[in-house]
Every structure is written in structure tokens, then in C-alpha cells.
């Protein structure tokens, strides 16, 4: 009974998550436009694992599109991490698919030393480091040399430029996609929004106390 109850609970959570994610995408004009333009590719990608089967294939081609789809990850809940992923955030449908690993793969393809790349960390990561993380990736610019095969030399440079621009836009779009859903930033924004209200409430309490003292003195 307990196992069945747990499974039902997980199904309910997943159902609520799907509804919330659909609302998130529809409520954001840029995400909605992008989804409409790429819907067929996303639906076809969703039928297969968003990964490459061998290391050689990964080096040849890395498909970023599946990770730009809300259902690419399962949850932000750290309690379901496997032992091998306890330091990583953003658990995806398959345990080995983590957004931290996705961005490390992008850095690797760009020829960056991954040790120097900010990691996504977990919920305990301070806002300062979270801010540093997104600052790094929001300024992304590709240094890759894009191969264009079967094209005349006259068109190579133009097509390389188009390919680089598309890659850069997709990476930056992925950054915005993850940032918008990062619970650490949502928590920080909520705390910042609450501070003026707390300050106003505190000031109101002080004003009421002062008026009460003045009233007591007058009596």
C-alpha cells in the first residue's frame, strides 16, 4: 500500500509539474514563439533519448534542442539525487542527463578548461555564486570553427557565420530557460520583494509605538 501510495503521489507531482511547465512556456512570449517554431523537432526528439550514443558521435554533433524543452528535466528536488549526482543540480529525465553536465559539454566543445567553468551547484550555493554563474554564461560567444561540408568555397564563410549565430543563440536561450526556472533565483527575488514590505511594517510599528507613548504622556 505504501509503495502504491508513493507512486500515485509521484504521478500527481509529475502531472502538476507538466501543467506548471506548460503555463510557464505559454506565459512567456519568447519561449512560446520559440516552441511554436520548433514544435515538430521537439516532439520528434521527445520520442528518443536526448543524447548521443557514443563518445565519437558526441564529438561530431551535440544536439542542444532537447534541453530547451521544459520536460527535459524531471525536478529540481535534490532529495532524489543518486550518489553520483549529489553535487549537481537540475536532474533530467535520465539520471545521467544533468544541466550541469550539459553546460560542461558545451564548454568542452568550445575548448574551455572545465575546471575554470562555474558549476551549477545545489540549493546551498550562495546568490553571489549563482549570479556569477549566469553572468558567465549570458555572455557566451562561440569560438568554434564550424565545418560546412559539400558547399562551394564562396558560401562557406556565410554558412559558418549562420551556424555560429544559431549555436550562440541556442546556448544563450538555454541559459535564459534554466535561469527563469532556477528556484534559487526565485527564492532570492521573493526575499528581496519581501524586504520593503517588512521595512514598511517595521516602520509602521515604530510609528504606532511613538503615537502610543505620546498619547500616554498627554494623559
Automatic annotation (TrEMBL):
It comes from the Eukaryota. InterPro entries: Chaperone_stress_response, J_dom_sf. GO terms for cellular component: cytoplasm. PANTHER family: DNAJ HOMOLOG SUBFAMILY C MEMBER 21. This is J domain-containing protein. It comes from Reticulomyxa filosa.
Amino acid at each position: 500500500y505504501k509503495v502504491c501510495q508513493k507512486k500515485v503521489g509521484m504521478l500527481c507531482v509529475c502531472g502538476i509539474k507538466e501543467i506548471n511547465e506548460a503555463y510557464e512556456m505559454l506565459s512567456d512570449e519568447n519561449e512560446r514563439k520559440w516552441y511554436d517554431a520548433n514544435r515538430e523537432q521537439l516532439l520528434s526528439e521527445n520520442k528518443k533519448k536526448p543524447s548521443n550514443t557514443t563518445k565519437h558521435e558526441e564529438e561530431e554533433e551535440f544536439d542542444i534542442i532537447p534541453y530547451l524543452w521544459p520536460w527535459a528535466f524531471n525536478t529540481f528536488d535534490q532529495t532524489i539525487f543518486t550518489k553520483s549526482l549529489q553535487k549537481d543540480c537540475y536532474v533530467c529525465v535520465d539520471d545521467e542527463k544533468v544541466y550541469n553536465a550539459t553546460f560542461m559539454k558545451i564548454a568542452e566543445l568550445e575548448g574551455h578548461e572545465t575546471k575554470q567553468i562555474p558549476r551549477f551547484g545545489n540549493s546551498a550555493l550562495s546568490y553571489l555564486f549563482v549570479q556569477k554563474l549566469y553572468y558567465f554564461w549570458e555572455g557566451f560567444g562561440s569560438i568554434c570553427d564550424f565545418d560546412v561540408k559539400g558547399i562551394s568555397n564562396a558560401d562557406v564563410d556565410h554558412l559558418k557565420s549562420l551556424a555560429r549565430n544559431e549555436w550562440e543563440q541556442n546556448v544563450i536561450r538555454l541559459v535564459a530557460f534554466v535561469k527563469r526556472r532556477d528556484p534559487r533565483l526565485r527564492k532570492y527575488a521573493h526575499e528581496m520583494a519581501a524586504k520593503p514590505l517588512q521595512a514598511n511594517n517595521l516602520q509602521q510599528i515604530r510609528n504606532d509605538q511613538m503615537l502610543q507613548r505620546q498619547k500616554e504622556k498627554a494623559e
